[in-house]
Amino acid sequence: MKYVFCVLFLIGLLFPLAGQAQYISCVRDEGADRIENLNGDKGYLLLAKRNDLVVVVTNARKYEVYPSPERPDGYYEYRIIVDADETFQPKVEVSKRGSVYKTDFLETVKSDFLIAFRLEEVMIPIRMDAQESVQNVHFNETEAALEFTSSIKGLQVHCHPDLKAVITSKKHDKDVNITIITVTFPLDVIRRAKERVEEANKAFVAQDVKINEAKEQLPDAEWDTLDVLDLRRAQRESELQELTAVDVFAEGTNHLPISVADLGPRDKKCYVVLPLVIEKNIFVTECSQFMDLGTQLFNNRKYKEARDAYESAFKAEDVVPNMRMAIRESIGQCDSCMLYDDLAARTYKKILELKKEGTATQEEVSNYASALIDFFSKINNYNPCDYYRRQIDNLQKQLNRLPLKIKFRVVEWKTLNEGDYIPGVEFWAYHGDTPISSNMFSTDKKFQKVLEKNGTSFQQIGVTDENGIVELELDREKLPKGFLFRPDKEKNIKIKYMTMEELMRQARGTFMEKQFRLKMFVK
């Protein structure tokens, strides 16, 4: 506790700095976690309402950051993919382009999976450190407890009303500026919620087995019951997650989430909640001036000049050492934009030459236009602006009358490695309005039942050959909402569904032709 007291006292002296600017903080967003075909690589998904972030992995050499265009909900996605051979605890630093302030996060990642974080902009960024001690014991076997020690004024701890938590606070014996907040709650509430989840899962599995083992056609009521039980199972799991979620925050700060789902009798978790330390105010330094200049030039699409400014910031005498990686990443973004800008200019010049000669085929012009879209899209991901969006939209309108070609290769996925090619996989296009997912088609029988009810929403458009390959041509103006991949019902392979958006994000190739390697999980 003496250590905590000293740290809080020192942090309190720096705390006024936090109100001078708006900072960024990253929090876990478990609901946005995503399974993705990464060929064994792993990483993070960062969601932000900013398109000017600089993202660096500090403890890995082989990694890539893929920014994406704005989503309908206003968020931008940054996919941070770390090579399979690199650490399973990559540390990520995030900053606004041109800013000397940053935030970081670190989690244990796993192959073919993206752990999601959401970026918040706050006036007072805070963090939380666990305090492990043998004295962390709650002396009531029917309860568990949390304890938060902090100098932050107005710190709040919110729990779900059904948790029946008792929240108390008191001042520290030696410093009235430090508050200790204690949260106690009965474990019986969580136990009952877990039992409801288990009961819902058992009921669903029992009904699923009953349907799959039936030798005769079952009435629709049995399938309706399965759907109801599936929804109830998801509802119970959601209720448990909401019940056990604890939120720690103060006015103007980011939110720090904690789950108490795994706490047992007499468990007590202790935390110290601290303002994020701002190293020093350097808005008037030479380094920060070059950073500001570089950002202005970058936003105005003057990438060479922006690179020179960032280079000067990197070499400035007063540069903060741990900012060098972020500045180097900004320089790398300038290099990428310069490269694609040059390729776009050369491609556009070639298109004009072909049109002037009048001998080019439609396919030649389309291929160059497709390449131009790709180059503009790459730059727009780094520096989103109306100029690039207009160019992309105009080119796409000209090419929309041409088909989108996608070549698929389907292979078995056995958790850690690929298996054989899978022949006979049916490709079904989904054109319905109701969102669907792979979980809705746990068995082939269930898919057949869905076809009976909503057959007009599905259309079979292909099947893989002996090498697991199928090639499709799609009308760009009538693209499906997604694809359902249906293996031979005799094979022990799960049906898989992907939205068109997911597919296009993960596919490789040009605007005209895409390639996608589909891994289907073997039960």
Backbone CA Rg: 27 Å
Helix/sheet category:
alpha+beta
Helix content: 25-40%
Number of strands: 26
What integer is the average pLDDT? Answer: 86
User: Hey, roughly how much beta strand do the residues contain?
Assistant: 25-35%
Distance between the termini: 51 Å
Quickly count the helices: 10
Largest sheet: 6 strands, mixed
Give the low-pLDDT segments.
Answer: 1-21, 279-284
Overall body shape: flat
**Which oligomeric state applies?**
single chain
Verbal overview:
Residues 1-21 form the signal peptide. This is Tetratricopeptide repeat protein. Keywords: Signal. With 523 residues, this protein is of the alpha+beta class. Helices cover 34% and strands 29% of the residues. It contains 10 helices and 26 strands. It has helices at 2-14, 187-212, 220-243, 286-299, 303-315, 324-357, 362-382, 386-399, 444-454, 500-506, and strands at 23-28, 34-35, 42-48, 53-57, 63-67, 76-82, 91-96, 102-106, 113-122, 126-130, 143-150, 156-158, 166-171, 179-186, 245-249, 256-259, 268-275, 404-413, 418-421, 426-430, 458-463, 469-474, 482-486, 496-499, 508-509, 513-521. The strands form 6 sheets. Strands 1, 2, 3, 5, 6 and 9 form a 6-stranded mixed beta sheet that branches. A 5-stranded mixed beta sheet has the order 10-17-11-14-13. Helix 4 runs antiparallel to helix 5 (303-315). The longest helix is centred in the middle third of the chain and has 34 residues, at 324-357.
Provide tags for this entry.
alpha+beta; 34% helix; 26 strands; 6-stranded mixed sheet; Tetratricopeptide repeat protein; 5-stranded mixed sheet; signal; disordered N terminus; 523 residues
